Amino acid sequence: MPLSPEEPQIHESAQGPRATPASGRTAPTPRPVPGPRPAAPPRPGRPGPARPMPPAQRTPRDAAAKPGPSVPAAPGPAASDASASVPQIQLIPASAEGALDAAEEAVDLLLDSGRAPGEVLVISTGDPHPWAAHELSFGEASYWAQHDAGDDVFYADAAALDRAASRPVVVVALNGGEDSETAALPTALTRAGTLLIVCGDPQRINSMLGAGV
User: DSSP alpha helices (H): ranges in 73-177?
Assistant: First the structure.
């Protein structure tokens, strides 16, 4: 029987299944039987259950030292008494204006790789490192007492190399002072126990230390 225009049309799909009435009584609409529930998706903003991760493996602080930026480690000969006394030399290309920053970055890499702060001596040939200038403002006695304690990185200018004691690693920043540069590198080489890092113009460094660098 067609519906009159006044009656709203009701689509069966919106009502769900209806049972056929029996004996004049309306049968209740059957409720769907729940099936297996799929895994609920994670709620927005909250991660779902994560699989337990294995504990992170930390690299021991005494692992091999990382080379300076863009400076490959030079392969050394077989260990011997003669070669053990010659420190390895690494060059970090830098301008005179950027040499101190390059030296500071090299120190950070050394400490991150496991070097103790007291094993590192930093030499500048031009303007002193800000730390050295600050500590010298309290007097030379206090400044050199920190050097003698040997428990932290020590910063000095090239003129102080004669007084500075040897350390396993010496970092030289060629940040100016042509005469200081020429005099500093050979002396710094004698102060370095195992590693000499030089930040500056590679061609100038090679001309001062020799073609074998």
Answer: 81-84, 99-112, 130-136, 140-149
